[in-house]
Amino acid sequence: MSVKNLKTQFSANLRAAQKDWSANFMPNDETLVEFTLGGSNAYNDFIIGTQKVIKVLIQDNLFDSASDFNTVAEWQKASLTVLNRYGTKKKIGNTLLKGVRETKSLPIQTGVYMNAPVASIKSNDGLAIVLYGMGKSKGNSQIDGIYDSFTRDVWKQWVKNNKVKLRQFYGSALDNPDRQFDRPASSGTATRQTTIIKTFRSSAKREHSLDTTTASQATRDLFIDALNESSPSITYNGIAIRQFDIIKHIIENTKIDWNLQPTKDGIGKYQTKNVVKLSLGKNPTNLASDLGSIMRHAQDYITQHVKDSTQKVLSDVQLKASTSLNDQVGGDVITDIVRPLTKAGLPDMRYKVNVAEFSTKKRNEKILKPKGISKATLSTMAVATKGRLPRPIPKEKKKEGDAGNLLKIEAMINKKLPAQVRRNMGRPALINQTGRFSNSVEVQNLRATKAGISGEYTYMLSPYETFENTGSIRWPSGYNPKPLIAKSIRELAMGLTSQKLVSLRRN
Asked: How far is it, in rounded angstroms, from Cα 177 to Cα 46?
């Protein structure tokens, strides 16, 4: 019962995320679309679409007369002719195309780009078009326009290539793609009006690629939500499962490109959040990235988790809330204790933390001058006394002093480190969402070496260790949290000590 209920909850969340991707090919402004025109799946569907047209319009149910020219080879020939024309003219219908060279320097401008040189269209058996930075409304409109233009142009080119044979069997009936005719409705004896091109397109549909099915895109969205903690755990009868763990299991056991590189190596420097890959032609059934396959992996994980958790309830990781008043007061006391001081016990003004704390503060009190008191005069005198030169501090005590000072520096860095990490976050690095990551960062074990100061740091590895590219998902190199943390620690250390921070490693 628990497995069924938990599976139902996760399935509902996945289907809700899937709706955005089912309604539009470009569901938001942060999506790049790679649309491939041509390919064997498209040619096979062109054959089926043509058979539909001939069957209804010409009333020819045998298709023998078209068997010589309604073939994969003829549709490939027509498609490559059209695609080469697009590449040469840099235009598809009303859509202007930009070349590959324009994608090799940053920033890449909004537009529609060819993803390969014109010379490679034949060897690639098609042409990939990249729609970048278009926005949801304009992007979906451009996709529709490219699809309409390509299917119409391919039909006309196929008719042109086989004009003699077509005229022999069908006259000029297939010449005009906008020719209207009546076709039987899906049910009953009624008919509905359609055109040649609409009937042809009914079998030549746009499909998501294996790597970007609507179910796989929904899984990616839930994964990001889980990282940002906007995706809650699913619970039933005292058992709680983090959606992050379910999705991680799905990703590790589904062999598709979860990283989604939108272009070939060395072509294009696109910066985008989501990637959608489209092509013409129907996908095979039972894809590894279909909803059914993904849910089977989810059920496997949920079943095992319920078995392991029969006698205990897993609790969610607690988020660090805003600093309480007691913590704030305690923090101020710690600051006073660990503040760098001189031998006389006064704030050492060689350190930035003390300069910032004392040199910029102003007192607003009004000092009243007492009445009736004359100015006092002070006399000075020199006093000569015998004294001794201070003895050098033994090395053992000096080491103890250095260690104590490093403990003070470590405490002061950790007090300000979360805020410093958040200041340094932002693309191309991680973006601050909940504060959970930055609040988990901590420097540890600072120690003196001959070259300077060395130390370690740590942060909440689950789930953020994935951005070090230690798992099956490949993230952009800028997402790696280690350079971000090291930079933040070094910046704070510079204001607290004149010694060089030579080595920082993740603990």
From this structure: 14
Q: Which residue has the tokens 């205990």?
A: 312
Picking from 256, 246, 253, the residue whose alpha carbon sits closest to that of residue 212 is 256
End-to-end CA distance of the chain: 42
How many other β-carbons are positioned within 10 Å of the β-carbon of residue 130? 25
Please report where in the chains the tokens 């006259």 appear, as a residue: 171
Secondary structure class of 133 (helix, strand, coil): coil
pTM above 0.85, yes or no: no
List the structure tokens of 66. Answer: 């078209």
Distances 34 to 2, 90, 458 between C-alpha atoms, Å? 41, 17, 39
pLDDT tens for residues 376-396?
444 444 444 454 555 655 555
Distances (CA, A) of 396 to 399, 446, 448: 5, 18, 14
- Going by the DSSP 8-state scheme, the letter that residue 366 receives in this structure is P
Find residue 233's DSSP bridge partners: none
How deeply is 223 buried, as exposed, middle or buried, from its count of CB atoms within 10 A (0-12, 13-18, 19+)? buried
Q: What is the DSSP letter of 502?
A: E
Distance CA 111, CA 105 (A): 14
Tokens of 54: 């001939």
